[in-house]
Design the sequence.
């Protein structure tokens, strides 16, 4: 037992048998010189940082983290099958990782969205953003009266009942749907959570939510990710402010958020919205129609092929939006990803008229803001065009990033004028 830990815990107890609720059943000792990030409140302890474990924690159990010589560092949840061996949730020995703690963290997260004015039941918002809300491994989105919960940590899946109780009492949703984590991520965590309804009833078909006065259909059971890309909410409006009178190309359009905003809010002359998925372009067309955006044309095509065609054609666009899927899955694939970003941005610049607007995004967490801007300066150099940065944006504020876990800062959205 550590000096600083509460006396009811039992470091050698194992599987929660002798510890009180939320108290540690084991102690994880760090290798020498590996404690600094955790004194800085970083929440991820990798297996490579662990020296030894005192006790026999079961996956999901509460453990204390200590330096190699036994000084208390933090308290977290154990997962023997993940490289992310311990996720940390408290940095003092007095805090229990019990249902009361999850409830207070959830209440604080929901309170932030209320203060942002994002509690309108006609709209959609991310209520819980994992590390950004001190709830590593838990993502909750509200679409109208329904909640979509994504669990990316095994330990959170064990606490799902308590989490849903709190969400029901705070938000009173009509239903709570569970969406499995991305397949790769689920495998890394040893998670087996099929998509299912966990509380209440499911919507009988697509539902409709408002975003900045525009109406979008969201299919909670069929859609990509959690149904709709909420992180781009304010970037769609920011892009629309530059669209007036322009011919807009919305590449990687998914359900047409940028296309509809540019047409209706922005007053674009026309919009061509392109995605390689026919399901996505059907959604984009439906959403454009829903908002009376008659000048939006959709096309199912590969973005690289389409960009190659338009960049060599004579007629130019006044605005090109690039919102591709994650090109870099890890640091290892970073070089390939940067080449792909360079290629599509170069083709987009070639497709723009002088004075045209480029709205270019990256949702790859392993591509830093600096990497992305350096890529753009490479495009300016190679194309011989001037690129003036007008806005460097990120995700909407219902996607907060913890300053102690900057890995959560994944979305870049740069609006630039191309001379
Ligand atoms: N801009 C969208 C989100 C885009 S998500 C919004 O605001 O909602 C990325 C999209 O890229 C997905 O819809 C996916 O189907 C599409 N995509 C992936 N690879 C593609 C490719 N090679 N060509 C065209 N679209 C692609």
Sequence:
């Amino acid at each position: 037992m550590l000096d600083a830990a509460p006396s009811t815990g039992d470091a050698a107890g194992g599987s929660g048998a002798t510890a009180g609720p939320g108290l540690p059943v084991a102690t994880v000792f760090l290798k020498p010189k590996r404690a600094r990030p955790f004194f800085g409140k970083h929440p991820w302890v990798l297996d490579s940082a662990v020296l030894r474990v005192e006790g026999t924690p079961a996956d999901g159990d509460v453990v204390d983290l200590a330096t190699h010589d036994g000084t208390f560092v933090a308290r977290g949840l154990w997962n023997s099958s993940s490289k992310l061996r311990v996720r940390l949730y408290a940095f003092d020995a007095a805090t229990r990782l019990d249902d009361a703690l999850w409830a207070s963290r959830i209440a604080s997260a929901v309170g932030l969205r209320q203060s942002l004015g994002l509690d309108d039941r006609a709209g959609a918002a991310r209520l819980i953003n994992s590390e950004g809300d001190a709830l590593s491994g838990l993502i909750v989105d509200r679409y109208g009266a329904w909640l979509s919960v994504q669990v990316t940590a095994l330990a959170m899946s064990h606490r799902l009942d308590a989490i849903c109780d709190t969400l029901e009492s705070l938000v009173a949703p009509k239903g709570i749907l569970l969406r499995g984590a991305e397949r790769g991520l689920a495998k890394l965590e040893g998670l087996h959570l099929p998509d299912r309804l966990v509380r209440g009833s499911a919507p009988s078909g697509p539902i409709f939510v408002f975003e900045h006065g525009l109406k979008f259909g969201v299919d909670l059971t069929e859609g990509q990710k959690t149904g709709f890309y909420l992180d781009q909410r304010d970037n769609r409006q920011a892009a629309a402010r530059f669209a007036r009178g322009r011919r807009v190309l919305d590449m990687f359009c998914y359900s047409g958020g940028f296309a509809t905003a540019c047409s209706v809010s922005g007053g674009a002359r026309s919009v061509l919205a392109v995605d390689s998925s026919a399901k996505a372009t059907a959604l984009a067309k439906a959403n454009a129609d829903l908002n009376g955006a008659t000048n939006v044309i959709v096309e199912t095509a590969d973005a690289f092929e389409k960009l190659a065609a338009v960049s060599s054609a004579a007629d130019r666009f006044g605005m090109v939006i690039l919102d591709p899927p994650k090109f870099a899955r890890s640091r290892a694939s970073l070089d390939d990803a940067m080449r792909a970003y360079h290629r599509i941005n170069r083709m987009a610049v070639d497709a723009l008229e002088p004075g045209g607007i480029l709205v270019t995004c990256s949702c790859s967490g392993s591509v830093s803001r600096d990497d992305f801007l350096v890529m753009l300066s490479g495009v300016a150099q190679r194309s011989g065009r001037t690129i003036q940065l007008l806005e460097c944006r990120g995700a909407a504020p219902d996607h907060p990033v913890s300053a102690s876990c900057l890995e959560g800062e994944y979305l870049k959205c740069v609006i630039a004028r191309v001379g």
